[in-house]
Inverse folding.
């Protein structure tokens, strides 16, 4: 149980275009999901907390107008990188936990999306 | 949020036991210690979680002393496929806490 699916696994886009990344909880409902970014050889950095039916909460230094998050249902959160630039190239990962947050097996993470902006 | 400190990297050979220690001096009473494993170009994967003493599952063991200010992940008889980054985190077991990832430990297993 507790599977999180992330799509696409990799995407290449041209500078100036927008890219949408989907994060789905397949076998549970997730009122809260998290989005991380990871640069090569570095740790995961939390970008924002996605809340179903309300605005996302962004970490300090993360541009909310550039990284649009929509959590319109209990099983889907999307991250849209708008007007992408080469410096946005990174590995994006989402995570979620079931229901009210009770968990015995930590957070479940998606498989990640490798974004390359050319 | 408790901060964790762990070695940046470790090297081992196939068949050896690997112990990775993590310091979390400011752990709160309600916090659990959770270890995740991450392979290149994949999301982290839960390995083991514990609160105190010893926890063992089919993959690893987790040793936590009485003061809970540190923990040790033990991987028995590692194989090449255990080469990965291992993250130690402290988190409550309810609610929606933000996870703060430290540097992690990059484990390299050689033949």
């Amino acid at each position: 149980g507790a599977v999180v699916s992330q799509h696409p696994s990799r995407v290449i886009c041209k500078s100036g275009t927008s890219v949408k990344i989907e994060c789905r909880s397949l076998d549970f409902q997730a009122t809260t999901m998290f989005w991380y970014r990871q640069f090569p050889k570095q740790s995961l950095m939390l970008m924002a907390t996605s809340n179903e039916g309300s605005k996302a909460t962004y970490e300090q230094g993360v541009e909310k107008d550039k990284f649009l998050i929509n959590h319109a249902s209990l099983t889907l959160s999307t991250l849209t990188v708008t007007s992408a630039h080469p410096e946005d190239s990174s590995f994006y990962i989402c995570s979620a936990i079931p229901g009210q947050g009770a968990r015995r097996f930590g957070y479940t993470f998606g498989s990640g999306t490798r974004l390359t902006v050319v | 949020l408790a901060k964790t400190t762990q070695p940046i990297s470790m090297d081992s050979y196939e068949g050896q036991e690997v112990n990775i220690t993590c310091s979390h001096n400011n752990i709160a009473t309600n916090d659990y210690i959770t270890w995740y494993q991450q392979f290149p170009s994949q999301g982290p994967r839960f390995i083991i979680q514990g609160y105190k003493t010893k926890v063992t599952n089919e993959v690893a063991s987790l040793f936590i002393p009485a003061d809970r200010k540190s923990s040790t992940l033990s991987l028995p008889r590692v194989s090449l496929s255990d080469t990965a980054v291992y993250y130690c985190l402290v988190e409550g077991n309810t609610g929606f806490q933000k996870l703060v990832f430290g540097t992690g430990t990059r484990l390299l297993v050689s033949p």
Remarks:
- Chain B has no helices and nine strands.
- The interface with chain A takes residues 34, 36, 41-46, 49, 87, 91, 93-96, 98-104 of chain B (CB under 8 Å).
- Chain B has a mean pLDDT of 93.
- The CA atoms of residues 40 and 63 of chain B lie 26 Å apart.
